[in-house]
Amino acid sequence: MKPTKSVGKMPAATFDIARKAVALTIAGSDPSGGAGLQADLKAFQQNGVYGMSVVTLLTVQNTVGVKRVEILPADLVEEQLACVLDDIPPLAIKTGALGSPAIVRAIAKRMKTYQGDLIVDPVLISKHGDLLGDHSMTDAYREHLFPIATLVTPNRYEAESILGRKLTDLDSFCQAASDLHQLGPKYVLIKAGLVDGVRQHILADGEDVTSIGVPDVPGNHGHGAGCSLSATIAARLTLSSPEHSHALRVRSAVEFAISAVHASIERSPPLGHGCRPVEHRVLHAGKSAGTAQ
């Protein structure tokens, strides 16, 4: 008996794609996939955004720790950036680990004529307090990138390093966010960590300072959380409607990203022998009180 052949056409699939939603990450590589540009690209893709990357440094790392770092020459980073911007201009750019003051200066030079949103994650000190950049990097961020940033997203240790003082309670974090705003960025988001039993995020826009808290999730996890947060913010900004005010779009993107990253930490997969990565596959599952989605 001969098999029956189907000659009918398969029903056409339908897609809802934001074709102009393009974001770029300028960051280092994490071969384990939990952080760095790999995490950023996952956050972009999960939110329906076309992602591009400029590599600043290579690491040998996994969930247990970083074993080696090789920083790329500043001119190579600048050439990557120029090549991408000349061909596919992104609506939002986020920076991660930059590696050297020369790279910071090279990026800032190119960003002076950039018209989209620039999210600067000043990767200087890990969430555990490990030093990832010296005072020359802190000065480079303050002088070159903060004044042109849409949003800066330091963690508590980075905020302390930039301001030169310890932050101990919610009031001190709120004041710190206001002080960081004076350095030039339009918005500041401090990832304060655990404050009075709640994971706090402090958002400042020059007029208002708001704390956004989420429940703590105990356990050895969160590898890539900071990268995923800033990348998700960048992704959501590319998807936001220009009909809304910029302040509403930023706040909505921030609230969505905080919610999404919290969900990703709650669902951290049991991978690796150290600090487990966040679950990047739920970074689209955020919520926001705003309307700029």
TrEMBL record:
This is hydroxymethylpyrimidine kinase. Gene3D superfamilies: 3.40.1190.20. One of its GO terms (biological process) is thiamine biosynthetic process. SUPFAM superfamilies: Ribokinase-like (SSF53613). GO terms for molecular function: hydroxymethylpyrimidine kinase activity; phosphomethylpyrimidine kinase activity. It comes from Stieleria neptunia. Its EC number is 2.7.1.49. Keywords: Kinase, Transferase. Pfam families: Phos_pyr_kin. Signal peptide: none annotated. Pathway: Cofactor biosynthesis; thiamine diphosphate biosynthesis. The keyword Kinase applies. Residues 30-278 form the Pyridoxamine kinase/Phosphomethylpyrimidine kinase domain. GO terms for cellular component: cytosol. It is an enzyme of class 2 (transferase).
